[in-house]
Structures are given as C-alpha cells and as structure tokens.
Design brief:
Helix content: 40-55%
Largest sheet: 7 strands, parallel
Structural class: alpha/beta
Bound molecules: coproporphyrinogen III
Number of strands: 9
Shape: globular
Strand order of the largest sheet: 1-4-5-6-7-8-9
Length: about 350
C-alpha cells in the first residue's frame, strides 16, 4: 500500500488528488464539539489525552479529510514555562501576570516537556495512532514570537504595543525569552514527531505584525532555533499576513509553507519555488453558496498544480461557519479533475 496522500505531498511527490485538512478543523463550528464543551472546559479538553483524542476524531467522522491535527492549543507552552492561561468567554486567552521586565523573565522555567501537560499532545497522538494507524496525524506548536506576543501582552491585541516596546527597549530580555520559548517549542514538536506525527506545524500567527527587518531579527532566528531541535518529521511553517516575507520564508528551514488568502498561490509558487505549499482559501468564503465555494477551491487547485500542495484554509475556520460550506469545500477537493 502506498503512503497517505499528505505524506507524499509533503515529500513533493505527484499525487492523484490533492490532500485536504484545515486549521481548527475540530472546534466550535461543530455541534458535537459544542455539546462536549457544555460539560468540559477547553483547558480540561487539552489536559486529557482521552478527551483530546475524542475531539481530534470529530471532524474525521464528519468529513472526508486526509489528515487529523492533534487537539491542543499553542498556549500550553505558556503554562509550561510558568504562566497561567485563562480562556474568558468572548475575550480569548488572558495571562493575568504578563512578563514585562528582565525580573519577570527570571521567574520563568525551562521545563522538561515530558514532565508537563505538554505531554498530553504526544500522548494524544499515540492514542490516536493506536485506533487509526491508517490516518495520518499532524502535531503542532506555536512559534516563539507568537508565544512571546501572548506572554508579554497578556492576551490578544491589535497592535501588540507592549511586545514591541520590550523589543525596542530591552532586546536582550526579549531575546532570552525567545530562546527559552524556542527550546521548549522545539522539544515539544520533537516529542510529537516521536509519538508518530507525520508532520509538525509551527504557527507564527502574529509574526505578520513585524517589519521585514524585525522579522529577520526576532521571528526568524527563533524559528530556526526551534526547528533545529526537530527531526524525523517534515515541518510546516505558518504565518498569517506573510506576503511581505514570502521571499525569505525558506530561511526558516521549514519543509513546507502555509499561505494565506491574500497571496495568489500561483504567485507564492513562483516566489518560493518547488516546495510544498499549504492553503489558501479565505475561511470566510465558506459562507458563500456551494457553487462559489467549488469555483474557488478549483481555482486554487489549478493554480497550485499536482505536486507540492496541501489544500487548507488560509487561517482557522470560524466558529459560526456553516457545515454545508465545509462539506462543499471538501467535496470540491475530491471532485476536482486536473486539466
Ligand atoms: O486546528 C485544530 O483543530 C487543532 C487545535 C488548535 C486550537 N488552537 C484549538 C482551539 C490549534 C492548532 C490552535 C492554534 C492556535 N491557538 C493559534 C494559532 C492559529 C491561529 O488560529 O492563529 C492561536 C493564536 C491560538 C491561541 C488561541 N486559542 C486563541 C486566540 C483562542 C481564543 C480565540 C478562539 O478562537 O476562541 C484559543 C482557543 C481555542 N483553541 C479554541 C480551540 C478549538 C476555542 C476554545 C473553546 O472551545 O472555547
């Protein structure tokens, strides 16, 4: 039997059909997830391999997907280095005791990932593989810069002003924090690769707030440092708003690159060359009528070509997304015929 489509696509082989999975494929847009969440908090889902595995399965049971992604969150690393994270309804994540100074930074720890709740992600991957050895599962982690954003700002933000203030006023402390996060993130990704993930994605969601110069100075070296700790599974780099950095993404050392919908995937191919690309439909397009969704999916598949492409959204699926839109997207990937 040949390897799964996503494994072959990540190797750059020509595949008979482009594989499809999508970011946040398990979550609130699904009624089964909301039902479980009415009884269990989000953090408790992330703290139990049995529950996380159950949620990982939910979208696979509902749709014809080519890969699972382990259910967890990027902010588990924040807890592992010593800051509590709360998810307040309607507000997103909150860190009540953000890190804003060299003294704050000293209060953090460098954990052994197998001795923290980070272990749950690799335990979930192992559990998943026991019941579905045929279905590829991806692991993931937040990138050091994106985690730094939450750690310093204390939550989401439009400008991440506190983060930039620390970068400019105390770059040494910012660098120490990035180094610490990179080491923990790298170990966490490696643990998931060793647990059997067929690929590991690094989410640098907020790196797009940086100028190209600052991206090269802060985000890039911390990704390189994290990825240097990962072997045995291909790595996928994702940044929202990465259009200004497309020509530099190869420097990360990642094996594949997520592309958001602001970039034509044909253009990304021309800039990045013959490497696996992942994306890039606008998640809001899933609210469009089925014919329009099909047209958009086929356009992306035609522009990306038969090799080096994994179909995905350009960012996570939104909680109010209609199931019919998700179905139309996946069916369109299956029904696509190459010219
Ligand atoms: O993709 C998947 O299905 C795997 C699970 C996954 C989650 N978060 C579950 C989740 C993944 C890969 C993430 C990544 C993540 N988490 C990112 C990077 C990708 C991105 O979306 O930009 C970021 C920035 C976070 C941090 C985070 N977690 C935020 C900002 C929030 C609150 C906002 C929101 O969407 O609710 C979360 C919570 C979260 N993570 C939920 C889920 C399913 C919702 C929790 C709930 O049930 O209330």
């Amino acid at each position: 039997m040949s390897d799964p489509l996503i494994v072959r696509a990540l190797r750059g082989e020509e595949v008979e059909r482009t594989p499809v999975w999508f970011m946040r494929q398990a979550g609130r847009y699904m009624a089964v997830y909301r039902e479980l969440r009415s009884r269990v908090s989000f953090l408790d889902l992330c703290r139990s391999a049995e529950l996380a595995c159950e949620v990982t399965f939910q979208p696979l049971d509902a749709f014809r997907l080519d890969a699972a992604i382990v259910f967890s969150d990027i902010l588990t690393v924040i807890e592992a280095v010593g800051r509590e994270v709360e998810f307040e309804k309607g507000k997103g994540p909150v860190i009540h005791d953000p890190v804003r100074s060299a003294a704050d930074a000293k209060s953090l720890r460098r954990p052994d990932v197998s001795e923290t709740t980070l272990r749950v992600a690799s335990d979930t991957i192992r559990l998943f593989r026991q019941s579905r050895p045929d279905m590829p599962i991806l692991g993931f982690a937040g990138a050091p810069f994106t985690l730094l954003c939450y750690l310093i700002q204390g939550g989401g933000s439009k400008s991440f002003d506190e983060v930039k203030k620390l970068l400019w006023t105390d770059p040494q402390t910012a660098q120490q924090l990035l180094d610490l996060l990179a080491d923990v993130v790298g170990d966490h990704m490696q643990a998931q690769a060793e647990a059997g993930a067929v690929g590991v994605q690094i989410f640098d969601t907020w790196a797009g707030i940086l100028s190209p110069e600052d991206w090269e100075r802060f985000a890039l070296p911390s990704i390189q440092r994290a990825l240097a700790r990962v072997s045995g599974a291909p790595t996928i780099h994702y940044t929202r708003d990465n259009a200004p950095f497309l020509d530099r993404l190869h420097k990360t050392g990642a094996d594949a690159f997520g592309i958001d919908w602001r970039v034509d995937i044909g253009h990304a191919r021309a800039v990045l060359g013959d490497v696996p690309l992942q994306g890039n439909m606008d998640p809001v397009a899933l609210y469009a009528p089925p014919d329009e969704i099909t047209r958009r999916v086929h356009r992306i598949l035609d522009a990306a070509g038969p090799r080096n492409h994994i179909f995905n959204l350009g960012h996570g699926v939104l909680p109010t997304t209609p199931i019919s839109g998700v179905e139309a997207m996946i069916e369109a990937v299956h029904s696509h015929r190459r010219a």
